[in-house]
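Researcher: Let's continue the batch. This sequence belongs to Uroporphyrinogen decarboxylase, and it's 354 residues. Same format as the previous ones, please.
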Amino acid sequence: MTELKNDRFLRALLRQPVDVTPVWMMRQAGRYLPEYKATRAQAGSFMDLCMNPDLACEVTIQPLERFDLDAAILFSDILTIPDAMNLGLYFEEGEGPKFKKTVRTQADVDALPIPDPERDLGYVMNAVKTIRHELNGRVPLIGFSGSPWTLATYMVEGGSSKEFRHIKGMLYGQPDTLHQLLEKLAESVTSYLNAQIRAGAQAVQIFDTWGGALSTPAYLEFSLKYMEQIVHGLIREHEGRKIPVILFTKNGGQWIEHIAAAGADAVGLDWTTELGSVRARTKGRVALQGNMDPNVLFGSPAGIKAEVARILDSYGYGSGHVFNLGHGINQFADPEHAKVFVDAVHELSARYHR
Ligand code: CP3
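Model: Same format as before. Here are the structure tokens for Uroporphyrinogen decarboxylase:
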């Protein structure tokens, strides 16, 4: 296996010493980059891009050519699993993801197959292998999946949602049916992430984008419980190295102690929670990832640097912080401002690691 030339991302996730704070950006490969739009046009559709390992590899590497990032993230989508469960994923221009079939009844849940990742999601594993080969040890590769709850919101609603009318109707009207759906998803996500790790993913992140839409007891019962189950089923060491696991619940700040106790190495935070206070609350038991508001990139270079400085200071001295945006970079963000952000993290963080 090729030696990693830059492993500060993995080291920070394991709270080992680093020279500077590592940084990557959620959705770092995406429409804010003109070269991404060109490759996507060449592929045809977004899903064609995900399913073509060479082109998926190309867009994964694109942001690394522009910015001094400390990690690459597999180019794919969280909705590949429901697609492999035969729900028929498609994207309508400007409208986000949609499914041809929805999951609303016990019979719908019973009919869902549990995908075999090698057979049904082989294109993802091929992308992971191609990217690892192409990275040649430059930085680690992150694999990922959606959380069962977040995947279920798309499957039950049939696409993106603001109110979650159908899935909350199920949660409060047919909780046993929802639990069976989440159970199937937890099993699917576990084997999917393990297949990504076997294919070469060096860390994995679970995106719980919609956990924050739940009440506290509902979050613990319908989201965190299943992420915890997944964490305990994951391969935690591969190729002689630890495979760190990151849990990211958007708007999950008030549940940080619970999330930190779920067995993952790191917890991702959006910008609504103060990093320093979370570090105190979690007592150094986990690494923290985040948490600049992506819209700071719409401000000035001086404003971006000031915000990076503030966040570094909030975390304070020592390892255990991976800098990131608190959510995905916006498609209208200026790539020059993204560069200011990434460089500022490295420049301003050295003093916290002496
Ligand atoms: O971070 C990366 O660079 C890796 C790629 C990545 C994508 N989606 C590519 C993508 C990752 C990690 C995701 C995760 C994802 N997908 C999440 C969780 C993270 C989050 O944002 O909360 C969610 C909820 C999805 C579902 C999804 N996929 C939505 C809601 C959309 C539409 C978004 C939009 O802005 O229109 C997608 C499509 C998608 N996934 C795009 C990209 C680059 C844009 C599609 C395009 O090129 O047209």
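Researcher: Any comment?
Model: The chain has one domain: 8-353.
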